[in-house]
Amino acid sequence: MDVLYGVHSVEEAVRAGRRKFDHVLVARERHDDRLARLIAECRAAGLRVRQEPREHLTHIAGTSMHQGIVALVRPQQMLAIEDLFEPVVPGRTRLVLALDGVEDPQNLGALLRVADGAGADGVVLTERRAAPLSPVAVKASAGASEHLRIARVVNLVRALEDLKQRNLWVIGLDERGTESYDEFDFTGDCVLVLGREGAGLHDLVRKTCDHLLRIPMAGGVSSLNVSAAGAVVLYEAARQRRAAAHGQARPSASGASKPKQQKGLGS
Fold first, then answer.
1. What is the CATH class of 2-73?
2. Which of 96, 107, 101, 109 is nearest to 199 (CA)?
3. CB contact set of 244 (below 8 Å; sequence gap of 6+)
4. CA–CA dist 217, 194 (Å, integer)
5. Are 66 and 57 in contact (CB under 8 A)?
6. pLDDT in tens, 183-203
7. What are the extents of the domains in the chain?
8. Which pTM was predicted?
9. Coil/strand/helix, residue 226
10. N or C: which end of the chain has fewer CB within 10 A?
11. CATH architecture assigned to 81-245
């Protein structure tokens, strides 16, 4: 069984309806309206709810940061890369986030929360040398991980090549990139690839990218934390896509990069 803890994590898992719950534990010491509403939601969904001492919840969760609620659930079903070939909304251009070895569960959770908020069609994670979708990551995502389509792959380069064959541009974010993120047209089908904390994209992943973008930095440091950088670019993509859906022209910028008519490796 997986352990979920924290109000947001449990609440979103109940609302998403994807997980099979065993039971939910609630701290006897906590009495407030917010928790009472969540307990009512759990019971309305037919879930077993038990009250236990807070110390018991701390033991089960492995942390005292459980906010008085812990759920035991079946592991989340991971998808294959083929499951991300089609958009969430039929006919809409596709936006996928791919993570090249992000190791910090807090960063992973933050990126999943941003991907959900920006309307990403899915997220690609690697099986090795990367943070697992742990209770810490789920809590950091504020439960957003329960709503996303998440595929875990062994070989990220191969997965990116597969997405290219489905006519998605592969866009890497790298401080050595030559194009500014806000001058790129994200209104087409694309995959945004973010690299490891500190080290960035692996060489083979970088070479697989069709474009390498950078975030201009005006201060003394050369780059942002990966979750902050992901938020900046994903919301720029979301802004452009929202404007395009309403028939608004994207603001032109000097040196703006427009995707070619032919896309991907197989074009």
1. alpha beta
2. 101
3. 187, 250
4. 17
5. yes
6. 999 999 999 999 988 888 999
7. 2-73, 81-245
8. 0.86
9. helix
10. C
11. 3-Layer(aba) Sandwich (3.40)
